[in-house]
């Protein structure tokens, strides 16, 4: 059986989890909630579901798991919409987390998004690329 997950994708996903661990631990130390800590790690992976926007923009309503996991649609379109991958969400979530408290869902999402964006910024080689305002102003052109 052919593997759908490339070595590079598997390594990237492992590192998304590793980068989320300190944030999950910090939240656990403040809330004593294992559920919250595990949610941070799970949500750090779920953020990549926004890749579906780019996938469907290229392929339409059909779905092929192998093509989705390959990410080839980013290269073929030379675009990256990825709406959850944006520092602007961090600003909004930080404000909402401050207002609603550390046990809020906003804090969970914030603590999942931050390490995800940090890791992705390192691997892509650009912090600015993960501004949705920047991507929109450049027609969502992909750096690669």
Automatic annotation (TrEMBL):
**Transmembrane annotation, as ranges:** 12-28, 105-133
Keyword list (alphabetical) reads: Membrane, Transmembrane, Transmembrane helix
Transmembrane helix keyword on record:
yes
What is the protein's given name?
Uncharacterized protein
